[in-house]
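ingest -> validate -> predict -> emit
validate: passed (alphabet ok, no gaps, 205 aa)
predict: started
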Amino acid sequence: MKQVYLYGAGGHAKVIIDMLKSNQITVSEIFDDNAGITSFKGIPVSHTDIHSPLILSIGCNAVRKKIVNQCENIVFHPAVIDSSAIVSESAQIEEGTVVMQGTIIQSSAKIGKHCIINTRASVDHDCVIEDYVHIAPGATLCGNVQVGEGTLIGAGTTITPGVKIGKWSVIGAGAVVVRDIPDNVIAFGTPCKVTKQHNYIQALP
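emit:
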């Protein structure tokens, strides 16, 4: 049975572990900086050594990017796709990305590195999803949608065809996005509107 290592022992890791099992992949060890955690779902937890091939089991987009930048000598695992997901043969999905249970990814979609395509999300034809994006549970992206690096698309959001959403933005749960959204903003509502600017990625230590 194939083996892999995780970085992060929290709720997101629980789902990834189940996904890996569905693909006959065993988690050998989990790295976490919380010294109080020594075991997680029966898997040993390390606080000193990070091994390859690695999957980042952390929900925060900015933290995933920070860790990747720090792990210069680590090999990241190819995308992991749950056995219940429906993924077009022409879709492209980069390393470190996880595609959760019940997800649909349609023809010619392109999904970058270390993304989360969460439970029952739908990514339609020709969408382009950049690195470190999180498409939350039940979100629907219609055809030709573009989502910039690090952006969070909230649970149950609907994005209409051809809309472009900028980098490191947050789209609130249940929004209906009918027009382009710029970088570094928080937006929500029906129709979705920008409520404020933010510098989330710049604020990381």
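The chain has two domains: 2-58, 80-197.
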